[in-house]
């Protein structure tokens, strides 16, 4: 590496300190006071100013500076830590008052973004102008995400047709709000972090009933949010031309519908236009990054815009004399990329890419030629300065690791003579770059998503040039000439045929257990080393950490013991039971909407991340909050048997024939006994309600037991007590999510658990768990837990008095503090 420029040597430790300080700030479990952060920031700025003055004086006198680069790094670390804290405390000061949660509020405000139309309603964000409760003004957060449902579900009591909503319109709504509260599971998605990053501090539903004021449009879209209005007009034009059914976003549509969804996503950033099944194909082939606006698309747009500006600039001798055409093209490309990112919704990946392009342009304008590690470090520091929470985004790691690995792999050899030889050399270079990125990012992809695409290399070799050179330009030019959208849709359809064929392969994806972060980091470094232009002996050193990551196996319970993981699925139930060599899933969680369910969003990713193959799935009863995720789970676990109380004509029977659960059934796995206590065979003919037919499962090992109860109520509890069944257990799944009509005193005395857990959703409409049920547990002296406060809970029969709550295991300040 050539000698570093002095300023590069000076700035490198400072940039590294900024990155480390930002990363340390993100480890805080709770924020300090704003005054504390302000004092730290002032101290760091003053120390930096004194340091800069000392360095300038030493340079003027040609003396060695008294301050080392590591001291500069320390100042930058403190400054980054304090700036992040100040931004976080300022944002947190606008949080929703817990006293307003669940109350009817009259809100007046402006629709701040392009509404997302779903099968059962719409979601949109509102910037409130005023809010009142019972006629008195109240303070609400500056950005609220609302749902307006047209089927009577959720918080609304009426089922009216949804009006057309447009960005920039002023409305008055009666709403009920609550704080953003996401599910907390091992390897799960952090919804609260996403809401924090996007500035959303309250969620709500529009109320429509006789007791509240009806929603009313106050003003049509004016000059408010002109970019969002333009985005919506373009999206509506694509919808009208290519016929995207608004109610079909969650299902696989025709090839033209898929193509229309991709076109809308590429032009306007509306990723929900792409159906869930289509996203699964794109993920299985490793091409999901091409089907939405990403850094690749922004960079492509910048390159095309720069080329056009440079070509036009060179046509004028006067302009070329005033300013060199290459610099004009570079500036034009960066500005055009910024406008494109702004129009497409200004997502964090787009902002990060524009920032990186601007930094590269600034270095070139200033005549600096920094080595790639320093330019890469500057871009990363700029990204976290723009978004302090970028460290926690998968896109940040994937993009910066990919760029770093490509740089570290060395420059390509000079092109050979001859046109065809240059074409072959360029093709070989593209193949090598894609192979390098695939190898280096495979461990990181496993850590972030729990699977890696085995067909990603051929899929991307086909999809990247086709999407970059054909689909994206046609989609963008369609804004000026709409018939080009038809050609873009045709191009997407042709690509979709190839991707469908690749995704249909039985070995399209590899799902492996997620290794710890240190194993993944070593594997990424090993993949990079394997692809560098080094002697083969040194490159082979990268194989070992890759093998460790690929063969990683999470620990399992010892023989004769079992482990429970009660997942946080919201208002529903799902519990994973593991022994030394077997696994059982009790219920699969609820269905959230027509587009998503707990099986697809929570259970399946967790099973993949833990490397679990289920032997049996038990569906306690047919209610949707217990079987809503069954289709996703059974499809991903084809070897699992099904034990359930569902009726013979239930739709799930077509997917997997269920064996009926009856009292007296039992089996033993690895020294652990499983026994069904209810329902009795005669209960099926007695026309009992579905809750009363819940499969009650008792698990015992070494004198320690757990009791899983489904949604049984008082009557079923009494029948269990009368049957003489052994009910004693150390761990109890609270019956029926803690409803008022369950958990009778006699039942609790018979079970006498050390720990009781209620699986329920935050501020659910059923009021679970009820205060009456909680009082009965308190009277018996039984420790009470629920997934709202605990998140997912892990418990083992080896240590029956201990448990681990996921919500408090690795806590951060942006997570919701439940009252």
In brief:
The protein is α+β, with helices and mostly antiparallel strands and about 800 residues long. Helices cover about 45% and strands about 15% of the residues. Strands 16-15-14-13-12-11-24-25 form an 8-stranded mixed beta sheet. The chain has a 7-stranded mixed beta sheet with strand order 17-18-19-20-21-22-23. A 5-stranded mixed barrel has the order 1-3-5-7-6.
Structural notes for this entry:
By secondary structure, the chain is of the alpha+beta class. Among the domains are: 6-92; 98-224, OB fold (Dihydrolipoamide Acetyltransferase, E2P), CATH 2.40.50; 289-396, no CATH class; 563-809, Ribonuclease Z/Hydroxyacylglutathione hydrolase-like (Metallo-beta-lactamase, Chain A, 4-Layer Sandwich), CATH 3.60.15.10. 46% of the residues lie in helices and 14% in strands. It is built from 28 helices and 25 strands. The chain has an eight-stranded mixed sheet with strand order 16-15-14-13-12-11-24-25. A hairpin with a 2-residue loop joins strand 2 and strand 3 (121-133). Helix 1 (6-25) runs parallel beside helix 3 and helix 10 (325-343) packs antiparallel against helix 11. Residues 152-159 and 244-253 have low confidence and may be disordered.
Task: Produce the secondary structure layout.
Layout: H1 6-25, H2 34-60, H3 69-92, E1 104-111, E2 116-118, E3 121-133, E4 136-137, E5 144-149, E6 170-178, H4 191-197, E7 203-206, E8 216-219, H5 226-242, H6 255-268, H7 276-284, H8 295-313, H9 317-322, H10 325-343, H11 348-365, H12 372-386, H13 394-408, H14 419-449, E9 451-453, H15 456-477, H16 483-503, E10 509-511, H17 517-531, H18 536-539, H19 543-550, E11 563-566, E12 575-578, E13 583-586, H20 598-610, E14 616-619, H21 624-627, H22 630-636, E15 641-644, H23 652-655, E16 659-660, E17 666-669, E18 672-678, E19 696-701, E20 704-708, H24 714-723, E21 731-733, H25 745-751, E22 755-758, H26 771-779, E23 784-786, H27 787-790, E24 793-796, E25 804-805, H28 806-809
Parallel strand pairs: 5-7, 13-14, 14-15, 15-16, 20-21, 21-22, 22-23
Antiparallel strand pairs: 1-3, 1-6, 2-3, 3-4, 3-5, 6-7, 6-8, 9-10, 11-12, 11-24, 12-13, 17-18, 18-19, 19-20, 24-25
Helix pairs in contact: 1-3, 1-12, 2-3, 5-6, 6-15, 6-16, 8-10, 8-11, 10-11, 11-12, 12-13, 13-14, 14-15, 14-17, 15-16, 17-19, 20-22
């Amino acid at each position: 590496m050539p000698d570093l420029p002095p300023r590069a040597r000076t700035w490198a430790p400072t940039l590294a300190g900024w990155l480390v300080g930002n990363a340390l700030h993100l480890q805080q479990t709770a924020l300090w006071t704003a005054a504390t952060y302000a004092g730290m920031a002032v101290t760091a700025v003053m120390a930096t100013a004194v340091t800069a003055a000392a360095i300038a004086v030493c340079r003027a006198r040609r003396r060695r500076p008294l301050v080392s680069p590591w001291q500069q790094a320390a100042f930058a670390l403190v400054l980054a830590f304090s700036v992040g804290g100040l931004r976080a405390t300022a944002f947190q000061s606008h949080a929703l008052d817990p006293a307003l949660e669940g109350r009817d509020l009259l809100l007046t405000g402006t629709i701040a973004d392009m509404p997302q139309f779903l099968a059962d309603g719409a979601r949109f964000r509102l910037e409130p102008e005023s809010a009142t409760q019972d006629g008195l003004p109240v303070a609400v957060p500056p950005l609220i995400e609302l749902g307006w449902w047209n089927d009577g579900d959720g918080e609304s009591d009426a089922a009216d047709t949804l009006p057309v909503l447009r960005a920039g319109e002023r409305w008055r709504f009666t709403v009920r709000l609550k704080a953003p509260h996401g599910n907390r599971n091992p390897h799960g998605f952090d919804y609260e972090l996403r809401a924090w990053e996007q500035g959303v501090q309250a969620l709500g539903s529009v109320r429509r009933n006789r007791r509240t004021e009806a929603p009313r449009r106050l003003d049509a879209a004016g000059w408010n949010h002109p970019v969002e209005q333009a985005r919506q007009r373009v999206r509506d034009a694509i919808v009208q031309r290519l016929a995207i059914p608004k109610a079909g976003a969650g299902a696989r549509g025709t090839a033209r519908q898929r193509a229309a969804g991709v076109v809308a996503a590429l032009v306007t950033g509306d990723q929900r236009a792409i159906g869930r099944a289509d996203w699964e194909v794109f993920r299985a082939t490793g091409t999901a990054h091409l089907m939405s606006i990403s850094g690749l698309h922004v960079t492509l747009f910048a390159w095309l815009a720069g080329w056009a500006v440079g070509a036009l600039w060179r046509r004028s001798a006067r302009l070329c004399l005033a300013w060199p055409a290459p610099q004009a093209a570079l500036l034009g490309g960066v500005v055009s990329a910024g406008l494109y990112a702004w129009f497409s919704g200004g997502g964090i990946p787009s902002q990060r890419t524009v920032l990186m392009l601007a930094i590269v342009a600034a270095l070139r304008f200033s005549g600096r030629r920094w080595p790639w590690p320093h330019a890469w470090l500057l871009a990363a520091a700029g990204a976290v300065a723009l978004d302090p929470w970028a460290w926690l985004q998968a896109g940040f790691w994937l993009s910066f690791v990919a760029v770093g690995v490509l740089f570290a792999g060395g420059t390509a050899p000079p092109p050979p003579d001859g046109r065809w030889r240059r074409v072959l050399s360029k093709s070989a270079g593209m193949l090598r770059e894609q192979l390098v990125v695939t190898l280096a990012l495979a461990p990181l992809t496993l850590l972030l998503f729990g699977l890696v695409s085995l067909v990603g290399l051929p899929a991307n070799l086909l999809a990247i040039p086709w999407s970059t050179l054909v689909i994206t330009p046609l989609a963008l030019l369609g804004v000026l000439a709409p018939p080009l959208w038809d050609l873009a849709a045709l191009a997407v359809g042709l690509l979709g045929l190839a991707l469908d064929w690749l995704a249909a392969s039985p070995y399209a994806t590899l799902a492996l257990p997620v290794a710890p972060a240190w194993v993944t980091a070593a594997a990424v470094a090993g993949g990079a080393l394997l692809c560098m232009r080094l002697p083969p002996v040194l490159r082979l050193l990268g194989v070992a950490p890759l093998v460790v990551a690929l063969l990683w196996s999470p620990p399992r319970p010892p023989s004769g013991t079992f482990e429970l993981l009660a997942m946080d699925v919201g208002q529903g139930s799902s519990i994973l039971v593991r022994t030394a060599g077997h696994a059982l899933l009790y219920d699969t969680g609820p269905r959230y909407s027509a587009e998503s369910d707990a099986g697809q969003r929570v259970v399946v990713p967790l099973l993949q991340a833990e490397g679990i193959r289920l032997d049996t799935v038990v569906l306690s009863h047919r209610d949707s909050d217990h079987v809503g995720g069954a289709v996703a789970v059974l499809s991903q676990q084809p070897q699992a048997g099904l034990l359930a109380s569902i009726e013979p004509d239930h739709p799930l029977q077509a997917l997997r024939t269920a064996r009926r659960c009856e009292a007296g059934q039992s089996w033993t796995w690895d020294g652990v006994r499983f026994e069904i206590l209810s329902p009795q065979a005669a209960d099926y003919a007695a026309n009992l309600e579905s809750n009363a037919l819940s499969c009650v499962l008792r698990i015992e090992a070494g004198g320690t037991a757990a009791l899983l109860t489904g949604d049984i109520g008082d009557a079923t509890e009494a029948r269990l007590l009368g049957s003489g069944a052994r009910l004693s257990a150390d761990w109890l799944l609270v019956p029926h999510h803690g409803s008022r009509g369950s958990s009778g005193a006699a039942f609790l005395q018979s079970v006498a658990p050390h720990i009781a857990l209620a699986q329920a959703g935050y501020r659910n409409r059923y009021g679970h768990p009820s205060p009456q049920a909680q009082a009965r547990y308190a009277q018996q002296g039984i420790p009470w837990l629920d997934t709202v406060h605990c998140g997912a809970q892990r418990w083992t029969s080896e240590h029956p008095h201990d448990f681990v709550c996921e919500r408090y295991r690795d806590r951060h300040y942006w997570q919701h503090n439940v009252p």
